[in-house]
Specification:
The strands form 4 sheets. The protein has a 6-stranded parallel β-sheet with strand order 2-1-3-4-5-10, sandwiched between helices. Helix 1 links the parallel strand 1 and strand 2. The two termini are about 30 Å apart. Helix 4 packs parallel to helix 6. The protein has 2 domains: about 170 residues, NAD(P)-binding Rossmann-like Domain (Rossmann fold); about 55 residues, no CATH class. By secondary structure, the chain is of the alpha/beta class.
Length: about 250
C-alpha cells in the first residue's frame, strides 16, 4: 500500500517523494486527503516560513488541518509521522532535549508546538511520531524564501562570486542536517511502534562562517560580512545542536 506525503511539492516533500517510490502526494487547498488504501502518512504540509505573521493562516493550515488529519488517521488505524521544528526550543536553549521547556520563537514555531501538545494530551490507537527538524538542507530548496546557508551561499557564489554572511556569523552555530538524514530517520521509524517527540539533527553545531568558508574554498568566491536586518535580530536563534540521545536510543544506534 502507498504512503501519503502531505506537502509533497515542498523542499523536503520533493526529496521524500523521490526516496519513497509509489508514494501519493497531497497539497493544501485540494480538499481533505484521501486515506483509502494508505499504509501510513508523513505529514510535512504546512506554512514553513518562520517569518509568517498571519496567525489565522497558520492556525488553519498548520494546526487545524494537522489535527483533522491526525484524527482521521486514528479512526482508520493509519500510523502518522508529523514534521515539527527545533524552533519550538526558543532562542535561549542550549541543551535541546525533547523534555526541555519550549519557548516558541515565532508564530510558526507556536503553531508547531500547539500540534505537539495536542498529540501529547490525547491517547491514540496508532503510533504518532513527531520529528523536530533542525536546520535541514539539500536539493530542491530553490523555491524557499529562507533557504539554508548551504544552498543560499552556493547560489550567491554562482551569481556574482560573493558569499554574504551576517556580521558575527562566526558565533552563530546551527545543527545543519542533510535532507537525506531526515528521510532515513523517517524510514527507520516505520518499523518502530514507539510514539512521541524526537529530535532529527546531527548532534553537532557548525558556524555559518564555517559553511561560508567551505563553499568559498570550493567555488573561489569571496566572503563579505553584512549587517543583520533588525527584524531578524529580534527573534534570532543563534545556536542549535540536537540532543540525539532519545532518537538514537529508539533506533538502537
Amino acid at each position: 500500500m502507498p504512503i501519503l506525503i502531505t506537502g509533497h511539492r515542498g523542499f523536503i516533500g520533493q526529496n521524500m517523494m523521490a526516496a519513497l517510490p509509489g508514494s501519493v502526494g497531497h497539497e493544501w487547498g485540494y480538499g481533505e486527503p484521501n486515506l483509502d488504501g494508505i499504509e501510513r502518512v508523513i505529514h510535512l504540509g504546512a506554512i514553513s516560513s518562520t517569518a509568517c505573521r498571519d496567525w489565522d493562516a497558520l492556525l488553519e493550515q498548520n494546526v487545524i488541518s494537522s489535527v483533522r488529519l491526525l484524527e482521521a488517521c486514528d479512526e482508520r488505524g493509519i500510523p502518522i509521522q508529523i514534521a515539527s521544528s527545533a524552533a519550538v526550543y526558543g532562542p535561549d536553549n542550549t541543551t535541546f532535549v525533547e523534555t526541555d521547556k519550549p519557548q516558541p520563537l515565532n508564530p510558526y514555531a507556536l503553531s508547531k508546538f500547539i500540534v505537539e501538545k495536542y498529540v501529547e494530551r490525547h491517547s491514540w490507537s496508532i503510533p504518532v511520531q513527531v520529528f523536530r527538524y533542525f536546520n535541514v538542507y539539500g536539493p530542491h530548496e530553490d523555491h524557499k524564501d529562507q533557504p539554508s546557508p548551504h544552498s543560499l551561499f552556493r547560489r550567491q557564489a554562482a551569481a556574482d562570486g560573493v558569499i554574504r554572511v551576517f556580521e558575527g556569523s562566526e558565533d552563530f552555530r546551527r545543527d545543519f542536517v542533510p535532507v537525506e538524514t531526515v528521510i532515513d530517520t523517517h524510514r527507520r521509524f516505520f518499523d518502530l511502534s514507539c510514539a512521541g517527540v524526537y529530535n532529527v539533527g546531527t548532534g553537532t553545531a557548525q558556524s555559518f562562517m564555517d559553511v561560508a568558508r567551505q563553499i568559498a574554498s570550493e567555488t573561489g568566491a569571496e566572503i563579505k560580512e553584512v549587517p543583520m536586518p533588525a527584524q531578524l535580530r529580534r527573534n534570532y536563534q543563534p545556536y542549535t545542536r540536537a540532543d540525539m540521545t532519545k532518537t538514537r536510543s529508539a533506533l538502537k544506534v
